[in-house]
Write a structure and sequence with these properties.
Number of helices of chain A: 0
Strand order of the largest sheet of chain B: 1-9-8-3-4
Helix content of chain A: under 10%
Number of strands of chain B: 9
Helix content of chain B: under 10%
Shape of chain A: globular
Mean pLDDT of chain B: 91
Strand content of chain B: over 45%
Structural class of chain A: mainly beta
Mean pLDDT of chain A: 92
Oligomer: heterodimer
Low-confidence stretches of chain A: none
Largest sheet of chain B: 5 strands, mixed
Largest interface: A-B, 27 and 25 residues
Low-confidence stretches of chain B: none
Number of helices of chain B: 0
Shape of chain B: globular
Strand content of chain A: 35-45%
Order of helices and strands of chain A: EEEEEEEEEE
Radius of gyration of chain A: 13 Å
Radius of gyration of chain B: 13 Å
Distance between the termini of chain B: 38 Å
Chain lengths: 116, 111
């Protein structure tokens, strides 16, 4: 079946511009996560959605970052006034149910963001 | 979240077994142990998870110490496709729903 998809696969933007990154989770998955991975580093948690509950935004690095999830499905991560340190691969993952600790996460291929 | 410690890198010969260690001395009784791997230029993929007992699946085996302060991911016969970064992660929904991935172990498979 279809996995998690992300778009665009690559995005080059100028410093100060806003960008939107999209994630389509696996159909029926109620949990959705955003991570970012800087070059040669591990994954850094950004934000998490579970069903209709308020999202866990504890990982967002600044108020320039925001995310929404419409209709419990597609999610958009928005970075306003991009900075060069925002350059990274942004990964989205979805899960059947995040409220149990044994459910696995399925990751998308990521969006590589380069801020020039 | 309780943290994990893994070696930065390991090497293995092709067709040989690989034992990837992970220390998690501050693990709590409700923490599940998850392993993911990330192949080059791809998102991470699930490998295996366990709580107390050893686990086997088609990809790997997970051996969990009796005191649960460490675990070992076992690849029975390494192939070139197994070259990846392997992450050992603890997950307890009581303390948060994000995974803490750390920097993992970079596995090199030598032909």
């Amino acid at each position: 079946g279809a996995g998690v998809s992300q778009s665009p696969s690559n995005k080059v933007t100028e410093k100060g511009k806003d960008v939107e990154l999209r994630c389509d989770p696996i159909s029926g998955h109620t949990a959705l996560y955003w991570y970012r991975q800087s070059l040669g580093q591990g994954l850094e948690f950004l934000i998490y959605f579970q069903g209709n509950s308020a999202p866990d935004k504890s990982g967002l690095p600044s108020d320039r970052f925001s995310a929404e999830r419409t209709g419990g499905s597609v999610s958009t991560l928005t970075i306003q006034r991009t900075q060069q340190e925002d350059s990274a691969v942004y990964l989205c993952a979805s899960s059947t149910d995040s409220r149990q600790p044994y459910y696995e996460q399925y990751f998308g291929p990521g969006t590589r963001l380069t801020v020039t | 979240d309780a943290k994990t410690t893994q070696p930065n890198s390991m090497e293995s010969n092709e067709e040989e077994p690989v034992h990837l260690p992970c220390n998690h001395s501050t693990i709590s009784g409700t923490d599940y142990i998850h392993w993911y791997r990330q192949l080059p230029s791809q998102g991470p993929e699930y490998v295996i998870h366990g709580l107390t007992s050893n686990v086997n699946n088609r990809m790997a085996s997970l051996a969990i110490a009796e005191d649960r302060k460490s675990s070992t991911l076992i690849l029975h016969r390494a192939t070139l496709r197994d070259a990846a970064v392997y992450y050992c992660i603890l997950r307890d929904v009581n303390t948060g729903n994000q995974f803490y991935f750390g920097t993992g172990t970079s596995l090199t498979v030598i032909p």
